[in-house]
Design brief:
The protein is α+β, with helices and mostly antiparallel strands. The protein is built from two helices and eight strands. The chain has a domain at 57-164. The protein has a four-stranded mixed beta sheet with strand order 1-7-8-5, covered by helices on one side. A four-stranded antiparallel beta sheet has the order 4-3-2-6, with helices on one face. The protein is rod-shaped.
Length: 165
């Protein structure tokens, strides 16, 4: 009889998992919650970085096209004056660019070899905007910070310079 009582008590003890279920359930729920929260946080961070790059690329395209148009205007003024036999002592054409975009600095590179204006940020966004002018442009690279720039015509070399103001 003692043996059957012992066996019944052991069966009850082994069959009772209330305390284990609550503890294990809490640990599992906490672990799953932490994993879901970490996954969501990382995905939102990556999504925000990607949207920042896309916004910078779009802004670079708009800025680069505007600079290309303004460069074409300066080139057209030089060609117009030269076509009528005029003498150009100095032509300056100012344009503005923002000091930063989405709190990121950037560089603007004028290349004569590929006829591109290359805008590149420190977060990896990069855009090359083609331009077509008849005069050469002095190849130069600027880093954002100055907001006012100018195109100027150099009559000694017959090219267009870009300078910070």
């Amino acid at each position: 009889m003692k043996n059957t009582k012992f066996m019944k008590g052991m069966k009850d003890l082994l069959g009772n998992d209330d305390a284990v279920a609550v503890s294990v359930g809490f640990i599992l729920m906490f672990g799953i919650t932490v994993l879901v929260f970490a996954t969501l946080t990382l995905s939102f961070y990556d999504l925000s970085r990607q949207s920042e790059k896309t916004a910078m690329r779009n802004t670079f395209e708009i800025m680069g096209q505007r600079v290309a148009i303004e460069m074409t205007v300066a080139d057209s003024m030089v060609n117009y004056i030269n076509s009528f036999g005029g003498t150009i002592n100095s032509i300056e054409y100012e344009f503005t660019l923002p000091a930063s975009i989405a709190t990121n600095t950037y560089s603007i590179n004028f290349t004569n070899s590929t006829n591109d204006i290359v805008l590149e940020s420190d977060n990896g966004a990069r855009v090359a905007i083609p331009f077509n002018i008849s005069n050469n442009i002095s190849e130069i690279e600027f880093y954002s910070g100055a907001e006012i720039y100018k195109f100027g015509y150099n009559k000694n070399y017959g090219n267009i310079n870009v300078e910070e103001r």
